[in-house]
Amino acid sequence: MSEAIEKQRVVITGIGTVTSYGDGVETFWDNLLAGKSGIDTVKSFDITEYPSKVGAECTDFQAGQYMDPKEARRNDRYTQFAVAASRLALKDAGIEDTSKLDADRFGVLIGSGIGGMLTIQTQSRRLYEGGPRRVSPFMIPSLIANIASGVVAIEVGARGPNFGIVSACASGTHSIGEAFQKLRDGDSDIMLAGGSEAAVTELGYAGFCSMKAMSTSYNDNPTTASRPFDKGRDGFIMGEGAGVLVLETLEHAQARGATIYCEIAGYSATCDAYHITSPDPEGKALGTAMRNVVKEAGIQPEDVSYINAHGTSTPYNDKFETSAIKKAFGEHAYKLSVSSTKGMTGHLLGAAGGVESAVCALAIRDGKIPATINYNEPDPDCDLDYVPNEMREAEVNVAICNNLGFGGHNATLLFKKLV
Predict the structure, then answer these.
(1) Distance between the two ends of the chain, CA-based, in angstroms?
(2) In what helix (H) or strand (E) does residue 253 lie, and over which residues does it extend?
(3) Mean pLDDT of 138-147
(4) Could you tell me if 192 and 71 lie in one domain?
(5) pLDDT of residue 1
(6) Which of 116, 300, 348, 371 is most solvent-facing, going by the fewest CB within 10 Å?
(7) What is the CATH number of the domain that holds 193?
């Protein structure tokens, strides 16, 4: 019988973000700590007839800064975001020349909840207005939800593990978790992992508005529209962008003298098996996921300092996630700092886990926890410490990131300070 392969420790060495704040992790982090909202009235299309009129758009994004302009035009906006965030993450990790990496042990896992929404919309319009010959030959490869991983791999020369995870708003978190497992199990030395989404489109808004999932009460005051855990919340605010991390085995990172943000020490994926859009009111499976990552990390529940909650600002999610946290942590739930940064970034759907995992890594690095903004009136059903309205300085040794997706998908990651 062969010897069991020793599990590798996995660390984060680079962070790349594209959000409504602009491009780059420090701009992202500075705005979050300042409690600045990145939400405004939607400007990319005529929002007049839509019940929800606000969003977190990447209005200044220029794909040509990160890839050949001709290639950029052949790809959907969500893929452009993924390439940009990947290049920013590599730069942050101090990797200027990827050709020096072992390409066969360099992988990419970048998920998306929807994929090329803008491509679907524009090419459908071409079909109905001009007939089938007007449809672009690049339509199919542009819209499919795995293509971001493929294009990023082509751009950076990564021949290792590569696929696209689609689990709605848990996609980015699952991608980081699966990359963590590839590294831990010795299948790779270094991975780009996270999520990307570009669904702020007419079609995207029409669909979510028809579901009555998006906020409609604060159109006249966009920066207050996303209010996680607040009693006045009435729906989520859509954001767009990408969050990509550089993950490495500890051995690989140390060998090249990398600066390390923190260690990834736990990952769990569960399913509510309850409803296609509503979370389980009892939060059983999400609670299990949180208990699983604590156990995998070899720590006690009381060691967890901070949870970056899914916290979408919808009536059901925030209430049910609160229940799940209580189930997982018991009395310690009331001693945890819990915040949702979606009050500032909006909900980036499949990219949420990428940017929110970055928040956990930065909170550990700096000992600063971003606030839940627009928290004005407590909800009796949401009775935890949500770090209301102002960032908090506190030592963060262990942080958890939760993300949930339509279909009942739950993904939870645990990050801890490297010791």
Answers:
(1) 33
(2) helix 250-255
(3) 97
(4) yes
(5) 42
(6) 300
(7) 3.40.47.10
